[in-house]
Sequence to fold (80 residues):
Amino acid sequence: MMLASQSATLPTVTKAVKTFDSLPGSALLSVTDVCTVLQRSRSSIYRDFEAGRLTPVKVGCSTRVRVEDVRRLAQAGGAV
Fold:
């Protein structure tokens, strides 16, 4: 049984996620957007960084991922 304070949060669909297919490969996505696109958890994305399957790009204090890297991982079956 779930309490009202424990309600499930749905991922926010950002403009980047909505237009993912039309974004250039050099565009940068937040880790949250990558999680939404690949339907995976944040920790699994960080495991992909550690394993070299995704390359993190630091922009100030935030971490971003190139769209081309996300597409490559998804095509390789990493979206499971």
The radius of gyration is 14 Å. The chain has one domain: 24-80. The domain at 24-80 is CATH 1.10.1660 (Multidrug-efflux Transporter Regulator; Chain: A; Domain 2). The chain has a mean pLDDT of 87.
